[in-house]
Amino acid sequence: MNFNRKILNWSIIITLLTAYIIPGQSSDGFAFKYGYPYRFFTMYNTEINAGSTIMNSTLFNIDRFILNILIMYFTFHILNKFINKRSRKDNID
After folding, report:
1. What is the dihedral of CA 78, 89, 4, 75, to 10 degrees?
2. 40-74 residue pLDDT tens
3. What's this model's pTM, rounded to 2 decimal places?
4. Helices (H), the chain
């Protein structure tokens, strides 16, 4: 099976946008998790100091991020096949 780069690019973009569009989930009042269907970005509610960086207060789970991309890719791939099959059938009739 060959990967369709256009579908893969859209899958990555939409996966990243879900962290901004879909509301986050608070697990314990200390951490807020973002992403859909699996939460891949976590932001911790910590105090900001002079020497703090963004790496001190966030966690990016690459495994869940890749899993989300694959889920989106296969969803779009199946929809694309269905639409193409449907349009070919309509052109024949």
Report:
1. -10
2. 999 888 777 777 777 788 899 999 999 999 999 99
3. 0.82
4. 5-21, 62-92
